[in-house]
């Protein structure tokens, strides 16, 4: 990235969207402190590189009219109680992962189930956000029933196959026990392995004891859960990602009490939050990979059988996810899946075009999504 581009990125991410104080004079006249609850630890990249800069920018742009108090680490609401807590205004806003509240947000959880088809953090985040904010009445209805409003949906780092033992080909995975979540269990089965479901927090010990041999998960788990102390081989092929992270969800009454100008300020700053998180995750993954290699982990390329097995699973998993959604009353699941794929291709092309110019990608999100929501 050139010096000029770096300067433009910093300006866009930190100050370009700090609008004149007069925009939110109504809110500034009566300062409002909003709580933001999450189960994430205080040092999580979603908070440090996403929410914290977002909150600061909104406070500055409203002249102190809107402030935020972060309540991380399940100190007030947990992953499973956050949406109810937001709806009841136990917290004014919060972060939530739809997988934990799938009964309350079935449409979002269904779309998250298509995560095997994600094409990167930026493309996945923008595609999910555009679909849910502009083209998914069911998504909005689910949130409305929970007395909540979502501002953006994000994707995390791509999943990889990470194993313990000498793995050099797909044949070596036959009979292995693979820890999975969601539809990735179907991929483990397609490989001739045994899918094993367990909390990620139990996986380190399970690997040590031979309860599982491999993990399908994000690369940052190597550090976060010390998995690099037990794993030896990583197959270097993205396998999609979790794509159900709602970055900022407001209590609906709190949102409606804000002025239109404050809504505009928030919409203008959400893209910066999204790309700030993506940038941090990309840099984090690069750093963790370098450390993993230093620790002796081996990264290998997938063979043709692995690639073919994943392609087959993408088709069967999507069919299964759609059928399950339809059985739960999401009648337009097939149409939503088609829209998701179209938007994923659209945003993957934009991500290729903007490259490492994160500010340019944020600008695209602003014009393509949030300007269409702002009053």
From TrEMBL:
- Identify the InterPro entries for this entry: DctP_fam, TRAP_DctP_sf
Q: Does the keyword Signal apply?
A: yes
Q: Is-annotated flag, keyword Signal?
A: yes
Subcellular location per the Swiss-Prot or TrEMBL entry: Periplasm
> Where does it primarily localize?
periplasm
Signal peptide interval: 1-31
An annotated GO cellular component of this protein is: periplasmic space
Query: Any idea what this protein is called?
Result: TRAP-type C4-dicarboxylate transport system, substrate-binding protein
């Amino acid at each position: 990235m050139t010096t000029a581009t770096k300067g433009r990125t910093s300006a866009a991410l930190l100050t370009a969207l700090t609008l004149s104080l007069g925009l939110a004079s109504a809110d500034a006249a009566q300062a409002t402190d909003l709580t933001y609850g999450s189960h994430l630890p205080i040092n999580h990249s979603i908070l440090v590189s996403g929410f914290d800069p977002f909150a600061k920018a909104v406070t500055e742009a409203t002249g102190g009219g809107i402030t935020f108090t972060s309540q991380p680490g399940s100190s007030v609401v947990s992953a499973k109680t956050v949406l109810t807590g937001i709806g009841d205004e136990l917290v004014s806003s919060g972060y939530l992962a739809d997988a934990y509240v799938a009964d309350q947000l079935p449409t979002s959880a269904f779309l998250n189930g298509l995560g095997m088809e994600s094409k990167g953090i930026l493309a996945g985040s923008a595609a999910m956000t555009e679909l849910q904010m502009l083209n998914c009445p069911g998504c909005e209805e689910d949130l409305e029933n929970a007395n909540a409003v979502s501002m953006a949906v994000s994707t995390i780092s791509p999943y990889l196959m990470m194993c313990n033992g000498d793995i050099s080909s797909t044949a070596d995975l036959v009979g292995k026990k693979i820890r999975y979540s969601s539809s990735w269990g179907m991929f483990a089965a397609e490989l001739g392995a045994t899918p094993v479901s367990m909390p990620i927090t139990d996986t380190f010990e399970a690997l040590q004891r031979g309860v599982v041999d491999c993990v399908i998960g994000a690369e940052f788990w190597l550090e976060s859960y010390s998995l690099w102390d037990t794993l030896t081989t990583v197959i270097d092929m993205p396998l999609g990602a979790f794509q159900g992270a709602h970055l900022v969800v407001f209590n609906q009454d709190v949102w409606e009490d804000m002025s239109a100008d404050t809504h505009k300020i928030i919409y203008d700053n959400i893209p910066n939050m999204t790309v700030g998180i993506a940038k941090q995750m990309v840099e984090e993954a690069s750093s963790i990979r370098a450390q993993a290699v230093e620790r002796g982990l081996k990264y290998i390329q997938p063979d043709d059988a692995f690639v073919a097995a994943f392609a087959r699973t993408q088709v069967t998993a999507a069919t299964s996810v759609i059928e399950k959604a339809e059985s739960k009353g999401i009648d337009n699941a097939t149409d939503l899946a088609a829209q998701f794929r179209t938007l994923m291709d659209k945003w993957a092309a934009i991500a290729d075009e903007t490259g490492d110019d994160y500010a340019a990608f944020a600008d695209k999100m602003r014009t393509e999504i949030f300007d269409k929501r702002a009053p």
